[in-house]
Design a protein that fits this description.
This protein is an alpha/beta fold. The protein has a single domain, classed as Roll (2,3-Dihydroxybiphenyl 1,2-Dioxygenase, domain 1), CATH 3.10.180. It is about 20% helix and about 40% strand. The strands form 2 sheets. Strands 1-4-3-2 form a 4-stranded mixed beta sheet, covered by helices on one side. The protein has a 4-stranded mixed beta sheet with strand order 5-8-7-6, covered by helices on one side. A hairpin with a 3-residue loop joins strand 2 and strand 3. The longest helix has 14 residues. The chain is globular, with a radius of gyration of 14 Å.
């Protein structure tokens, strides 16, 4: 259902380094790139995570209530991926743990303040 998700940045080199390392940890890599955006994924026909410099030339801002959820295969992966995000300079928004009814998640903000989480079910 989801083709891609975009996050804004005001510093493409910094965002690129953060997501290159984080996406490598979860088995994804750059699959598209221009002067204004980079997209990471496992294949072009799979969902992508993209970071953009705003097309309107204005400053990128964080959307209140917006979050990107990235699926992990296990709680151990959630723990590892969350630790990697923090190691790369992300901010903790919720330690890894069960959130009820078989959902296990961990929350963080990237270097531009965008909120993401890693999760698994079961």
């Amino acid at each position: 259902m989801i083709g891609y998700v975009t996050l804004g940045t005001n510093d493409m080199p910094r965002a690129a380094a953060f997501y290159d390392a984080l996406c490598a940890e979860i088995g994804a890599a750059r699959v598209m790139e221009t002067d204004h955006f980079i997209g990471w994924g496992t294949a072009m026909d799979q969902p992508l995570l993209m970071v953009f410099l705003p097309e309107n030339g204005k400053e990128a801002t964080v959307g209140n209530g917006v979050m990107v959820a990235l699926r992990a295969a296990s709680s151990e992966e959630v723990d590892r991926f969350h630790a990697k995000a923090l190691e790369l300079g992300g901010a903790n928004e919720g330690d890894p743990g069960p959130r009820g009814d078989g959902f296990y998640g961990a929350y963080f903000r990237d270097l531009d303040g965008n909120k993401l989480n890693f999760f698994c079910i079961g």
